[in-house]
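Form 7-S
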Amino acid sequence: MSSDVPAAPKKSVLPGVALGFSIASLCLICLWPVGLVLSIIAMVKTGKPGQQGRGLAIAALIISVGSIFFSGIMAAIAIPNFIRFQARAKQAECKVNLKSIYISAKGQLAEEQPLGSLTDLGFAPEPGNRYAYVLSLPDSFVPVSERFTAVDATEIQAALDNAGVAPGVQGECPECILTAACVGNVDNDDTLDVWSISTAERTDAEGKAIAPGEVFNHVNDGEE
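Output:
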């Protein structure tokens, strides 16, 4: 007398490993290809008769595919934010240097000295300046460093005109008004970033007051 006892299903650790990598890929995006490949292999292996772990393999495959879409969503959010962060870091150069020009101008006005040029103000940016600094074109301006794409005087003047900025010294010193500007390209597109500062109170395009010594952004290349 004999009886046929069905063979016990074979267990495999592969579905569990695939599921582990798939879950880990939600945190470490670089692991999703590993999780996806292991999930596919586990699906094939558990599809054979006498194999266990089909449910784990399906779960691993679903999570692996989902992590691809998840990483795409995260990239769509993170990349623009990173670009804006980079732009703000680059713009810090301009803001610091314009503030330096303003402080020098106020010091010379307090001593009743004329404001002739950026050189007279003792202004010289750190090497590798990304922005051009303008008091008047073409007589008093500091061009962009050779490390970056050149911005010629014609482009600078056009950007200033479009932004409604007129750098220079107006009136007789020490009652004169100085307005300085910086122009640069922070993201290598066709738009130029334009900032200015003045020793007098101004108003922006919407009529809001701009205090003396306030560095004002007329065109934000980081958001264009």
